[in-house]
Design a protein that fits this description.
The protein starts with a helix and ends with a helix. The longest helix is centred in the N-terminal third of the chain and has 31 residues, at 2-32. The protein contains ten helices and no strands. It is mostly helical.
Amino acid sequence: MKENTINLKKLLFQTILSIIIVILFVFSLAFFFRAELLGFSEHFVRLFGFWGLFWGMVLSDSLPAFVPPDAFLVLAVSGEMDPFFTIFSMSLGSILGGTIAYMIGIYLIPRFHLGRQIVLHYEDKLLPYLRRFGFGAVVLSALTPIPYSWMAYTVGTFKMRYRLFFLGSLFRIVRIGVYYYAMYIGWITGV
């Protein structure tokens, strides 16, 4: 039990640290590259809008090598997109992307040698969380710096019930909301 507490404290520390880093990063962007980021964000918002955020998150959380999900949050904050619709569209896209990764874990990864090798590589890092916390491991990956898409592949490969995975994935809404407002604070203080 003590080991669980230590790991949870470490994850809580890493999560708080990542939020602070996000605020500082966005503050730096706002301070040093505000005009450039505003121009890019304006272009992104004009071209893609909330659908761009949605599909960006689908790709980010189904293909982990794509673009980090937080990059889309930076565009949304600097592009002054509506907070509610930003969080809603990005959360929906993230959960759909996680569902795709989960399905890849169930149906595709076990069929290919390379897929099994990749899961085995990440299994050492993710499987202890999965064994120790079960459903909670999905919640932790949805909220913390633990890679959500890799957890989705892993729980799919180990055939966690989809309902449990989906319920844990709903915590992505909380993470996206917290990070949105952390970035917003970084953006407005970087003026």
